[in-house]
Amino acid sequence: MKEYSTGQIVEYTNLEEFCHSYILPPAFGQRNHIGLFFIYFFMIVYLFIGISIISDVFMDSIEVITSQTRTIISTNADGENVIRKTNVWNPTLANLTLMALGSSAPEIILNIYETLITFGETPGELGASTIVGSAAFNFFVISGISIYSVSEDNDERDEDEIEEDGTPLGVKKIYDLGVFTITCTASMLAYIWAFYCLMDYEVTVLEAWLTLGYMFVLLILAYIADKYKAAQAKKI
Known about the structure:
Layout: E1 2-3, E2 9-10, H1 33-66, E3 69-75, E4 81-87, H2 91-103, H3 105-117, H4 126-148, H5 177-197, H6 205-235
Helix pairs in contact: 1-2, 3-4, 5-6
């Protein structure tokens, strides 16, 4: 880097790719590294706070949508009208669509942004990194905290006591194992499918449409499993 008396700065680099920023001034990265650390740190914290606020509002909106109910009037065997309320959204479908959209909105927006700025070119690592990082966080951190946080308020009872379905008291179990199995299997297959699509470093139009179609297959299978569980519960 050379500075002339007129104040003009010329930068030399042997890198194949040079960072052209529309926000940062020229030679910004050449400044004091300690100062840059604090600047970048507070910028990241500020952005994270903004994302958390927006995501919180977004999730509240989705919860309002998915909690909507409708009134159904039916006639029983005695000829009397029975009024009952049912959810407009199926809970399983709501979790796999709207709730997933709300919780994954930040990485989806980042992927769309990178796709638009690199349209027609080789995409960068931002999109893949956000998807893999989010999925790994969901698999390990969220699953672990959820399991650990399950309340065991039956510890004071006799260990030999059991629930109506035969489960010992205080034992953690998955309520709907069918939907859980389908979503876990689909998650693993999704990684395998993504690896297959990216083996040649190119995603074809057919692969893109198949990936979108697999989402609807997952929703259909999960919905069937949820209805089967509900039917089994009614028989009991």
